[in-house]
Structure formats: structure tokens, C-alpha cells
Design a protein that fits this description.
Elements lengths: L1 E2 L21 E2 L9 H9 L10 E6 L6 H4 L8 H4 L4 E3 L6 E3 L3 H5 L4 E7 L9 H5 L14 H9 L9 E4 L24 E2 L13 E2 L11 H18 L7 H11 L1 H7 L6 H7 L3 E4 L5 E2 L3 H11 L3 E5 L11 H26 L6 E6 L3 E2 L11 E2 L3 E7 L6 E3 L1 E2 L6 E3 L4 H12 L8 E2 L5 E2 L14
Parallel strand pairs: 1-8, 3-12, 3-13, 6-17, 7-8, 7-12
Antiparallel strand pairs: 2-9, 4-5, 6-16, 10-11, 13-16, 14-15, 18-19, 20-21
Helix pairs in contact: 1-8, 9-11
InterPro entries: Alkaline_phosphatase_core_sf, DUF1501
Pfam families: DUF1501 (PF07394)
């Protein structure tokens, strides 16, 4: 992974002799010590890059958001099930959601709620939301993330912007910061990491702009200065001399105005940016920070040419402490409400609603019955997801749960079905995709029984 935020780690020199200490910091042994990004570019040069530009923004809520308090309230259930919140009517007759999501309610015709997501692994882990599969000893580090498959199959939409971009903060609970990996498709298809985390969670194979530390995480000016530093050192040391075409193109990405402009929120309309709210760069315990303006950056990245942008947002593991589930919900539900609706408003205003798919989900749901601390425990039996854009038939609910929100009562949907829908929206024909591992064994992105959600596509 490549990182533009985080604490630098000094290493040796590039394979072309450029001193990393004077240019960029990179760790890990990547194809004999060479920078992985040129290899990414060399691979993408061999594939057919399509002129159309479909994209996905994958918003992961670390910790297991409470489905029964958000998208599938049960107002007629006993008090120990229904909790503190009331449902409100939405713009779509017959669909109700939590009262703390008034903006989503008013825009419900632009959203889809999946109320019957089953097959959750039950682990505190982003893996299933990044790959469509539970993590096992056999597939850990081997299986490519969804975004890596897209990078391999479709390549980049623009040579100056990586196809696979991550805004996933490395977190104290490491699995909540997992953005997917290249797996057997290769490191060249791993996510290009734009944000960093706590120093002890940074991976050694990250490339980092010098001088941008965690306490400057919210300082966009510092990021832009980091880009400028690269520009100056390339010019001063003649670093381009002797580099092959893909090393040059790698530097083009890092110094390109397109990538730089995408993360430069000073170039955004102040009125548009204000709608998202104000970032809180403090990490929520072992989760992610409340960086609401990353929702805007995600949109800017797909506009610039990224095909998949993955991000995590705050911390949703609330079952410890008396009533903490509802205390935290009152803080984070409104933030998510504002950030997601601002993103969808922007997507529609820019005519991207047929091209950009947005999904919001966590690793599992929460127990319908409150525990003895008035909070909800882990509940992998049922989960929900919120979707929008992608040319889908929005303004509807997919599936239903039983009276107490314990299990799917109709139209069960799996993670693989959701990823099949995302691939369909991207224009990927899964029947035509087959890749091989190092031993020549063939693999497909999804299992044979994975099916796009027919009501949406």
C-alpha cells in the first residue's frame, strides 16, 4: 500500500539509486526492492482501459452498527427490543427509518435499504465487507479485495490517478482498518493508501510523504506541501534521469495535479463543503476518526479517475457501558446522516448517479434484545446495508426481518450478492473474468451462485 499521511520510516535506496531519505520513504521488499507503483502502472498498461468510468464508494462502519436502531426499527416490539428511538416516515410511502436520520428520510427515493443481509461472519473485521468472504487461515493474505479485482480487470480510468484508492485509517483494532489486499493478483493491485493512523499500526510497506505526522492529519495544507516537496526534490536531484517509463509514471501520479487537486478541499465550493460538516481527527478509541469531509474527498477522487474508493468512519462497537448504544448513536447517527446525504446530493448534482455506486455497511448487526447495560451485543444472524447511485432502482427496501428483527423473513441477501451487484454496476462481466494464482489455479471474483440483486439492476 502507498500512503500520503503518516509517520515516515527511513529505509535504503530505490532500485534506480535515488536516495529515499531525500525523496520518499518506502518500506518492504517489493519485487526486488523496487517501488510497487511502477509495477502497478506496467500491469495496467497491458489491460484494456475502458473509456467509460463507473466507480464505487465503499463506506465501512467499523464495529457493527445496530441495524435495529437505524434502518429496521420495530416500534411494536417489547420495550427491551425497540429501544429509545422512534421511526419516522420517509419520502417513500411505507418506508420508515430512525428519527436521527431526517435527511436520509427526505431523500429516501435516492436510497435503497437492504434489511435481510445474512451470512455475516460475526468477527470484528472489515474483511467480509472488502472481499465478500469470511476471513480464514487459507484466504488471509491470499484472496484479493473487491477493489483489487476491479483494478486488475478494469485498470485505471486515468493514468494520473490510481484505480484502487483507500481512505481506510489504520486502527487500534487492526481489522477495522483492513482495506483489502492485492492477494494473488499482486501488490500492484493493492490499495493506494491516502491516510495513515497511529504509529504502531502503520505497515512497513507504506510509502509516505515526508513530514506529515498524525497530529497534522486534518491539515490539508500540510498534505499539499508534501506534494510540493516531491516536486522540488525531483527537480533538484534530477530523479527522473535514468528512470524507465513506469517509474516516471509513478512520479507523475504522486506529482499530478489531478490527484493533488482531488484531496485539496480548498478547491471545493465552500458552500458544498460546509454541508458535510467539520472533521474531528481524533481517533475514536481503537476505531477510526470522524472525518466527515472524507466523504467529499471520496467523491472528488472518483471524479478524478479512481474506480473504487474505500473508507472507514468512526467506531460502532457500543455494547459496553450503561446505555452506551444510544448515547453514541445520538452522536454518530446525525454525522452519518449529514455526510452520506451530502455525498449523494453531490453525486446527483454532478450527473454521476448513474455511474457512482455508494454502499454503507458494517460487519454484522446487533442483538434485538437489549443487554443488562441497555446496549446491544453482536448479532451476525442479520445485518443491513444502505445503497445509492449506480443507476439502480432506488426508493425501495430489499428483504425484511421477522417481528423482532432477529433473522431474515424474506429475500435473504448475501455479501456475495451485494458484490455481484457492485460488479454489475461497474460493467464487469463476471462470466468473462478468470485469474490465476502463482500455481496456475484459476479463480473467479465470486462464487458461482452469487447473483446481482435483481430488484436493483
Amino acid at each position: 500500500m502507498l500512503t500520503l499521511f503518516g509517520k515516515p520510516h527511513a529505509r535504503g535506496g530505490f532500485c534506480d539509486g535515488v536516495n529515499r531519505r531525500d525523496f520518499l520513504t518506502i518500506g518492504g521488499t517489493l519485487f526486488g526492492g523496487c517501488l510497487a507503483l511502477p509495477n502497478l502502472l506496467a500491469t495496467e498498461n497491458k489491460v484494456n482501459i475502458r473509456s467509460s468510468h463507473k466507480a464505487v464508494i465503499n463506506i465501512y462502519l467499523p464495529g457493527g452498527p445496530p441495524h435495529i436502531d437505524m434502518w429496521d426499527l420495530k416500534p411494536d416490539a417489547p420495550a427491551e427490543v425497540r429501544g429509545e428511538f422512534n421511526p419516522i416516515q420517509t419520502r417513500v410511502p411505507g418506508i420508515q427509518i430512525c428519527e436521527l436520520f431526517p435527511r436520509i428520510a427526505q431523500m429516501m427515493d435516492r436510497f435503497v435499504i437492504v434489511r435481510s443481509l445474512v451470512g455475516n461472519s460475526g468477527d470484528h473485521d472489515a474483511y467480509q465487507c472488502m472481499t465478500g468472504r469470511p476471513r480464514t487461515a487459507a484466504n488471509n493474505g491470499f484472496w484479493p479485495g473487491f477493489s483489487s479485482w476491479v483494478s486488475k480487470v478494469q485498470g485505471g480510468a486515468d493514468t494520473a490517478v490510481p484505480a484502487n484508492v483507500s481512505l481506510m485509517y489504520p486502527t487500534g483494532e487492526r481489522r477495522w482498518g483492513y482495506p483489502g489486499e492485492g492477494g494473488f493478483l499482486g501488490l500492484q493491485h493493492a490499495p493506494f493508501q491516502l491516510v495513515g493512523g497511529k504509529a504502531n499500526n502503520m505497515k512497513s510497506d507504506n510509502l509516505t510523504l515526508q513530514g506529515v505526522s498524525l497530529d497534522r492529519l486534518n491539515d490539508r495544507v500540510a498534505l499539499l506541501k508534501g506534494f510540493d516537496t516531491i516536486d522540488r526534490k525531483v527537480d533538484a536531484k534530477g530523479a527522473m534521469d535514468g528512470m524507465d517509463a513506469f517509474n516516471r509514471q509513478a512520479l507523475d501520479i504522486l506529482t499530478s495535479s489531478k490527484l493533488k487537486d482531488a484531496v485539496d478541499l480548498s478547491k471545493e465550493d465552500p458552500k458544498v463543503l460546509a454541508r458535510y460538516g467539520v472533521d474531528d481527527p481524533a481517533f475514536e478509541r481503537d476505531g477510526a476518526p470522524r472525518m466527515v469531509r472524507n466523504f467529499c474527498i471520496a467523491r472528488r477522487l472518483v471524479e478524478a479517475g479512481a474506480r473504487v474508493v474505500t473508507m472507514n468512519f468512526t467506531r460502532w462497537d457500543w455494547h459496553g457501558g450503561d446505555g452506551k448504544n444510544f448515547v453514541q448513536a445520538k452522536k454518530d447517527f446525525p454525522l452519518l446522516d449529514v455526510a452520506v446525504t451530502s455525498l449523494i446530493e453531490d453525486i446527483h448534482a454532478r450527473g454521476l448517479d448513474k455511474d457512482v455506486t455508494v454502499i454503507v455497511w458494517g460487519e454484522f448487526g446487533r442483538t434485538p434484545k437489549l443487554n443488562n447495560m441497555a446496549s446491544r451485543d453482536h448479532w451476525p444472524q442479520l445485518n443491513c446495508a444502505l445503497m445509492a447511485g449506480g443507476g439502480m432502482r432506488t426508493g425501495q427496501v430489499i428483504g425484511s426481518s421477522n417481528r423482532l428483527g432477529e433473522r431474515a423473513a424474506s429475500r435473504p441477501v448475501t455479501h456475495q450478492d451485494i458484490f455481484a451487484t457492485l460488479y454489475k454496476n461497474l460493467g464487469v462481466d463476471l462470466n468473462a473474468v478468470r485469474e490465476y494464482d502463482a500455481n496456475g489455479r484459476p479463480y473467479y471474483p465470486l462464487d458461482a451462485d452469487a447473483t446481482p440483486i435483481r430488484e436493483l439492476v
